[in-house]
Amino acid sequence: MAGLDLQYQALDNGQTVARELVKDYSAAAGGYPAATADSLMFGKLDGASSLAGLLDSVEQIASEDLEYAHRRLSGVESGLEEVRSNTRKAGKASDVAAV
C-alpha cells in the first residue's frame, strides 16, 4: 500500500492547515462582538445613535460569520481525521485479505 503514503501525507497536511485556521478564526472571533456601541463614542455627530446601532449590527454579523467559519473548519479537521482513520483501516484489511 505504498501508493497511499502520499495520500496520508496530504490528509495530514490538510488537517494541519485546518487546525491552524481554526485557531486563527478562534482568535479573531474573540474580539467580536465588542462592547455595545454607544452614541457617546461619536460625540455630537448627527445620527450618532443610528451609527452606533449600525456598528452593533456589523459587530454581530462579524461575530456570526467568524463563528460559522470556525465551526466549518473544525468539521473539516475532524472529517479529515475520520477519512485518514478509515483509509488506514481499509489498508490494513486489504493487507490481511492479501495474505
Q: How would you describe what is shown here?
A:
- It contains two helices and no strands.
- It is an all-alpha fold and 99 residues long.
- The mean pLDDT is 84.
Question: What pattern of helices and strands is seen along the backbone?
Answer: HH
Structural class assignment: mainly alpha
C-alpha-based Rg, rounded: 23 Å
Shape type: rod-shaped
How many strand segments?
Answer: 0
Largest sheet: none
Q: How much of the polypeptide forms β-strand, as a percent range? A: under 5%
Helix content: over 70%
Distance between the termini: 13 Å
- Spans of at least 5 consecutive residues with low confidence: none
Arithmetic mean pLDDT:
84
Provide a count of the helices.
Answer: 2
What are the main properties of this structure?
single chain, 99 residues, mainly alpha, 77% helix
Concise synopsis of the structure shown:
This protein has helices at 5-29, 48-98.
Set out the fold topology.
Elements: H1 5-29, H2 48-98
Helix pairs in contact: 1-2
